Amino acid sequence: MPHIISTVNVNGVRAAAGKGMLAWLADTEADVVCVQETRATDDQTRAALAPALADGWFLTNAEPESKGRAGVALLSRREPTAVRIGFGSKEFDAAGRYVEAEFGEVTVASVYVHSGDAGTPRQDEKYRFMAELGAYLKVRTGDVVVCGDWNIAHTELDLKNWKGNLKSAGFLPEERAWIDELLAAGYADVVRRLHPGVDGPYSWWSYRGRAFDNDSGWRIDLVLATEDIAPHATAAQVERAAAYDQRWSDHAPVTVRFDGLPGLIGGKTSDLVASRA
């Protein structure tokens, strides 16, 4: 039976719920949905998602300590057997940037790496977060899928205007090298493996100008899986809205199908078309 994992930065769960997120949740075939930037307390998140929770979704939430910033969550069709908020960081565990849940033999995590700003204390904070998260992920054992908004375009294929962003946060050499380190440590970028050598598929477009209409985007919403289970990923797609006015976030859900992955039993099957080259 196939198992489906989606990830999406909702750009505020209360706003997204009112714009179309609830309808998407009612229609999706995902077994687990990783959510970033809820920008809400636990009570506010539960209130915004109340119809989905009443429909059977389980919520695993890490609310942010700073009002209106960050916040990550997982929605799942079955209750996880264990939950962990953060990764043992004194600085970041209360920030609402990392949460993981165990489903049988598989651990699924939702991560939000903030955007940064080159040459500023905000970028320094991003690097500290990356260093601690990377150290944690590199020593993880077992079957792990880490999904989220990493706010890093790994290669020139991952953003439309790469030449104009060589000195911009999100495409800095140090950030891209960090993704290299994670891949070398035993993780696979499963969407890129399924879509090799192509531009994108982009998952974020600025609200400014005509970025969405021109598909001038960034691929910064990644699904990384440990190498033992990465080969189980057989299809991936970005669920890009049909039109600008149908968007409920500036990000689109990234959805990956895994075949034969234990532990994520859900109530629906997928009609994703296999994308393996």
UniProtKB/TrEMBL annotation:
Keyword Secreted: no
Annotated binding of Mg(2+), by residue: 9, 37, 149, 151, 250-251
Textual note on the cofactor: Probably binds two magnesium or manganese ions per subunit.
Tree of life domain: Bacteria
Transmembrane intervals: none
Annotated site location: Interaction with DNA substrate: 251
Protein name: Exodeoxyribonuclease-3
